[in-house]
Design a protein that fits this description.
This protein has one domain. The chain contains six helices and no strands. Helices cover 70% and strands 0% of the residues. By secondary structure, the protein is mainly alpha-helical. 0% of the residues are buried.
Length: 153
């Protein structure tokens, strides 16, 4: 019986080349796993770099558009300046009105429209109404009031 057990143990005993194959397999598995992690890292890094570059390009584009807008606003301000408008009016045949040529006409019941900004300003409550009285009182005024009221309140 012992001889038979020895034969079974000897038959299942691994040969040195099998052990080496297991080590090589484990090493290759580690190399493949490390390669997959490195590839994933490189993919994420590349996507972040591409996105960062796109953001930089968009910021440059925004800056260019802002400059073009500022140039257009400057041109508009120049075209609507008093001197340029007066010159264009004279070229079109207009002339300044003389005091004797001007006649004002009063229309009963007519109320001149107010600009929208003035209408909005009328709706805003006064400064004192916005801030409660407790927040407009200085520390010295508060102490003085407490002393006059008896200090215990």
């Amino acid at each position: 019986m012992q001889a038979q057990a020895t034969q079974i143990v000897h038959a299942y005993k691994q040969a040195p080349w099998r052990v080496q194959r297991q080590y090589v397999g484990a090493f290759l598995l580690f190399v493949i796993a490390a390669s997959m992690i490195a590839a994933l890292y490189l993919s994420v890094t590349a996507q972040a770099a591409v996105t960062g570059r796109e953001i930089q390009e968009l910021r440059v584009e925004i800056t260019g558009i802002q400059r073009a807008n500022a140039d257009l606003e400057t041109q508009l301000a120049d075209l609507t300046s008093t001197a340029v408008m007066e010159q264009r009016a004279l070229q079109l045949g207009y002339r300044p009105v003389k005091p004797g040529e001007l006649e004002y006409l009063a229309v009963p019941g007519f109320v001149a429209p107010e600009p929208g900004i003035l209408l909005e300003a009328q709706d805003v409550p006064e400064f004192e109404q916005i801030i409660p009285a407790e927040y407009t009182q200085s520390l010295l005024e508060w102490l003085d009031e407490r002393i006059r009221l008896g200090g215990g309140q």
